[in-house]
Amino acid sequence: MSTFYDMVVIGSGPAGQKAAIQASKLGKSVALIEKSRETGGSCVYRGTIPSKTLRENALRIKNMRMNAEIANFELNEDLELATLINRLEQVLSAHDTYLSNQLIRNGITLIHGRGRFVSESELELTSVSGDVTSIQSDKFVIATGSYPRHPSHIPIDHENIFDSDSILSMLYLPKSLLVLGSGVIASEYASIFQALGVKVTMIDKYPGPLGFLDNDLTERFVHAFEAMGGTWRGDTQVEEARWNGFDAVEVSCAGGEVIRGEKLLCAAGRLANVRELQIENAGLQLNDRGLISVDESLYTGVANIYAAGDVIGPPSLASASMEQGRRASCNAYDIPIGKMQQTLPAGIYSIPELSSVGLSERQAKDMYPSIIVGRAHFEEIARGQISGIQDGMLKIVCDAEGRKVLGVMIVGEGATELIHIGQMALLSDADVDIFVESIFNFPTLAEAYRVAALDVIEQRP
Ligand SMILES: Cc1cc2nc3c(=O)[nH]c(=O)nc-3n(C[C@H](O)[C@H](O)[C@H](O)COP(=O)(O)OP(=O)(O)OC[C@H]3O[C@@H](n4cnc5c(N)ncnc54)[C@H](O)[C@@H]3O)c2cc1C
For position 347, what pLDDT does the model report? Predict the structure, then answer.
């Protein structure tokens, strides 16, 4: 027997949750399908929340080491990694309760089972105990997320060579860690483990990490990472990695060099997670980047099937996935919602934190004949001095007249929060003067906006 729902959402991560809640708020009967025992997706269990919980402890430990004159501080030898994410249980349990209540409040039927398309209107579900049922719908949202890409020359065994989903299953904090990759996940984990005292080496074929970010930010990231004791190895082609069967992972590079570390993290991008979904039975296929293609309304072009979140590719952020999920459901029922905002902030929770919105200096130079850039260093800001957050910088990129704000970039603690002030200025098309004419709380790091804006104004032609 098959049950019918107005809307079936596959995957309970940020995209699936918001899609399901939106459809139910429109008065539809909704089933949310999740193959894992837990609800919340990789965001909650393997991605955003665990990595940020570890980061909080890494920051505390780094700060305690910096305050050596107050107390001598050393981590225990053979420290279990679980100890460093001990608050995770509480965070996850609070999140789980909140999420379950939200689903119940909205009358959403949560079904735990692995979904597989039988046709464009039928999904077969296999429960953990092996029971098979089927549900039907004339509207689907695929929100099955992504999984780590495993390059063929890196034998990931989740014991010595990890991917970004398994790295936190390491039992003990290793003495050294090799990180292959230089994207967001690689940079976050590399700097977090380095702050914890692990000797980290980042290896990548590109000359610098986080290539999509402003150079000022990435240079400061590398400088801070190396100042903590980390090593950045750019322009390095990895040919092979292997566990030597005894005490180290060995990475062979083009040119013959071998780099050794106790453990290795491979962060080589992520692919759409449709391995078990059999999308071909619904008439869908992956594009040549291994993702589900959608148009701007998140429609796949097949029957009434929409897709949202990591499964459709960049920006592959929990923040964007939530909004895509909400929009997919609105669009499925022709609810007018306007175009999706293109001014998305990027937040990198490395140590130090990095964030940017709008055009980087390089992008602005490519698009405009001339630009004006204003900077503020956190060491000049009272709050930076008080809180010991002196290793930071905020930069505003403006047009040639020094009026229109084109982009804001921030490095330093609080960057991912502070960026939203710049985002609002960009979205409201404000002149840079808004940062000088508005009164901000004092002392705050937000004062950096005023200092950088004054720097722009001084350079006006
Ligand atoms: C280490 C790391 C750190 C990150 N940090 C951040 C951050 O700081 N900020 C940020 O915005 N983003 C961050 N992200 C990205 C963020 O986690 C993802 O963008 C987000 O989780 C994507 O949401 P989603 O709903 O598309 O998929 P997911 O969260 O992956 O959820 C997909 C769900 O679908 C389920 N599923 C899959 N196949 C099936 C099936 N056949 N049947 C039933 N269920 C199925 C899965 O079990 C899973 O629960 C991070 C990611 C990683 C890996």
Answer: 95
d(CA 370, CA 433): 19
Look at residue 78 and tell me whether its pLDDT is greater than 70.
no
What pTM value is reported for the model? 0.93
pLDDT at 333: 97
How many CB atoms sit inside 10 A of residue 452's CB?
Answer: 27
Residues with CB under 6 A from ligand 1: 10-16, 33-36, 41-43, 47-48, 51, 114-115, 143-146, 164, 185, 273, 276-277, 309-311, 316-319, 321, 349
User: CA 432, CA 277: separation in Å to the nearest integer?
Assistant: 49
Average pLDDT, the chain: 92
Residues 97 and 95: their CA atoms lie apart, in Å, by 6
CA 303 to each of CA 30, 56, 129, 141, 284: distance values in angstroms, whole numbers, following the listed order: 18, 45, 31, 11, 10
- pLDDT confidence of residue 91: 80
- Enumerate residues 6+ apart whose C-beta is below 8 A from 229: 194, 199
DSSP symbols for 412-460: STTHHHHHHHHHHHHHTT-BTTHHHHSPPPSS-TTHHHHHHHHHHHHT-
Distance from C-alpha of 44 to C-alpha of 91, rounded to nearest angstrom: 9
The yes-or-no verdict on residue 244 having pLDDT over 90 is yes
- Pocket perturbation via mutation, ligand 1, pick of 42, 53, 168 by most ligand atoms within 8 A of CB: 42
Which has the closest alpha carbon to 287: 301, 269, 303?
A: 301
Is the CB of residue 406 less than 8 Å from the CB of residue 440?
no
Ligand 1 center to residue 438 CA distance, Å? 38
- Residue 81: enclosing H or E segment and its boundaries? helix 81-84
In sequence order, what E strands does 51-160 have?
109-112, 114-119, 122-126, 132-136, 140-142, 146-148
Q: For a pocket test of ligand 1, which of 36, 48, 192 has the largest count of ligand atoms closer than 8 A to its C-beta?
A: 48
Structure tokens at 71: 């107390």
Strands 140-142 and 146-148: unpaired
Q: Which residues contact 74 (CB under 8 A, 6 or more apart)?
A: none
Helices marked H in 247-402: 318-332, 361-367, 382-387
pLDDT in tens, 323-348: 999 999 999 999 999 888 778 999 99
Average pLDDT value for residue range 103-115: 95
Closest by CA position to 347, among listed 434, 423, 296: 423
| Residues ≥6 apart with Cβ < 8 Å to 379 | 385, 390, 391
- Ligand 1 atom 52 nearest Cα: 47
Q: Quick check: 386 and 443 in contact, CB under 8 A? A: yes
